Amino acid sequence: MAVERTLSILKPDATRRNLTGKINAKFEEAGLRIVAQKRLQLSEAQAGAFYAVHKERPFYKDLVAFMTSGPVVVQVLEGENAVAKNREIMGATNPANAAPGTIRKEFAESIEANSVHGSDSAENAATEIAFFFAGVEIVG
Ligand code: RTP
Ligand code: MG
């Protein structure tokens, strides 16, 4: 299987509750390596652009408000099959449907404040990584 990279975000509900270490431990225990990481306060324009694919969805405005409500930690995770593996560790979007042991089952507050973002395809991962990181900031 190929070594891949994926973009991960620890969302404001996670930073607010001081959960960044516990969530990072889940990635590392699963064999994903954190090869880039920084803490940011997203502007409305940045959050809106990042989630532009959801522009027409009813939850878009709320999502942008939530993602700008506090700091986020953006990261690049690297490992075998990293995109799918990260999605598995995160669990379903709605914590009520997330499998036991997943990040969202253990930590998410709601379908919106669900603690983590992870790219959903290798193609989107490349776009999302480039959105936040310069090449020199990623050290594998
Ligand atoms: P993400 O993009 O953040 O990794 O999450 P995802 O793929 O599991 O979910 P997606 O459908 O892409 O939705 C993006 C984020 O929007 C918020 N959301 N709110 N109120 C709602 O019904 C609703 N649905 C989605 C969540 O924060 C979700 O992660
Ligand atoms: Mg998504």
TrEMBL record:
<feature type="binding site">
    <location>
        <position position="59"/>
    </location>
    <ligand>
        <name>ATP</name>
    </ligand>
</feature>
<dbReference type="GO" id="GO:0004550">
    <property type="term" value="F:nucleoside diphosphate kinase activity"/>
</dbReference>
<keyword id="KW-0808">Transferase</keyword>
<keyword id="KW-0460">Magnesium</keyword>
<feature type="active site" description="Pros-phosphohistidine intermediate">
    <location>
        <position position="117"/>
    </location>
</feature>
<keyword id="KW-0546">Nucleotide metabolism</keyword>
<comment type="function">
    <text>Major role in the synthesis of nucleoside triphosphates other than ATP. The ATP gamma phosphate is transferred to the NDP beta phosphate via a ping-pong mechanism, using a phosphorylated active-site intermediate.</text>
</comment>
<feature type="binding site">
    <location>
        <position position="104"/>
    </location>
    <ligand>
        <name>ATP</name>
    </ligand>
</feature>
<keyword id="KW-0479">Metal-binding</keyword>
<protein>
    <recommendedName>
        <fullName>Nucleoside diphosphate kinase</fullName>
        <ecNumber>2.7.4.6</ecNumber>
    </recommendedName>
</protein>
<feature type="binding site">
    <location>
        <position position="87"/>
    </location>
    <ligand>
        <name>ATP</name>
    </ligand>
</feature>
<feature type="domain" description="Nucleoside diphosphate kinase-like">
    <location>
        <begin position="3"/>
        <end position="140"/>
    </location>
</feature>
<keyword id="KW-0547">Nucleotide-binding</keyword>
<dbReference type="Pfam" id="PF00334">
    <property type="entry name" value="NDK"/>
</dbReference>
<feature type="binding site">
    <location>
        <position position="114"/>
    </location>
    <ligand>
        <name>ATP</name>
    </ligand>
</feature>
<feature type="binding site">
    <location>
        <position position="93"/>
    </location>
    <ligand>
        <name>ATP</name>
    </ligand>
</feature>
<dbReference type="InterPro" id="IPR001564">
    <property type="entry name" value="Nucleoside_diP_kinase"/>
</dbReference>
<comment type="similarity">
    <text>Belongs to the NDK family.</text>
</comment>
<keyword id="KW-0418">Kinase</keyword>
<dbReference type="InterPro" id="IPR036850">
    <property type="entry name" value="NDK-like_dom_sf"/>
</dbReference>
<keyword id="KW-0067">ATP-binding</keyword>
<feature type="binding site">
    <location>
        <position position="11"/>
    </location>
    <ligand>
        <name>ATP</name>
    </ligand>
</feature>
<keyword id="KW-0963">Cytoplasm</keyword>
<comment type="subunit">
    <text>Homotetramer.</text>
</comment>
<dbReference type="InterPro" id="IPR034907">
    <property type="entry name" value="NDK-like_dom"/>
</dbReference>
<keyword id="KW-0597">Phosphoprotein</keyword>
